Amino acid sequence: MIKKFSFLIGILLFSLHFGQKKEQLQQQNAELKKQIAKINSDLAKTRNESKLSITYLTNVNQKLALREKVYNNTQKEKRFIEDEIYLRQLEINRQNRELAVLRKNYAQVLVNAYKNKGVQNKVTFILSSKGFGEALRRVQYLKQYSDYQDKKAAEITNAAVELKRSVEKKRKSAVEKENLLVNQQKDLTTINVERAQKEQLVNEFKKNETKLAGELRQKQSQSKALEGQIRS
Question: What is the pTM of this model?
Answer without folding.
Answer: 0.59
